[in-house]
Amino acid sequence: MRHRKRGRKLGRTTSHRKALFRNQATALFEHEQIRTTLPKCKELRRVAEKLITLAKQGDLPARRQAAKMIHKHAVLRKLFDDIAPRYQDRNGGYTRIIRGELRKGDGTQMGYIQLV
Q: What is the pLDDT of residues 25-75, one digit of tens each?
């Protein structure tokens, strides 16, 4: 039984999955919209929203915790200085997922994840 086992494994090892979401979260905050498969979008939403909530705190410990996930210094600065103030009055729901077309090679449902 899978009770209380949260999250999708996406056919990857734990370290590969963490690296995938670290890179995708960095790309999302850098470009504010990315295109990927729908299950990855849904999992990335959990990671991105936690990072935005950390950035809303704005203090040094929160910045250091976010730096564990976002390795590009310019993107980290953008998250704390530009993106987080936009959502200061909003309690969650910082991202939007839009279903895209089916991928041509294997028919996988694609999706766009973007910052609201």
A: 999 999 999 999 999 999 999 999 999 999 999 999 999 999 999 999 999
List CB contacts of 45: < 8 A, sequence separation 6 or more.
95, 97, 113
- What are 36's two structure tokens? 């990927």
pLDDT for 34 equals: 97
Rg value, the chain, Cα: 15
Rounded to 5°, angle at Cα 56 from 98 and 53 = 50
**pTM across the whole model:** 0.91
What is the strand order of the sheet 33-37 is part of?
33-37, 109-115, 95-102
Separation in Å, CA 89 to CA 12, 32, 77, 82, 92 = 36, 19, 20, 14, 10
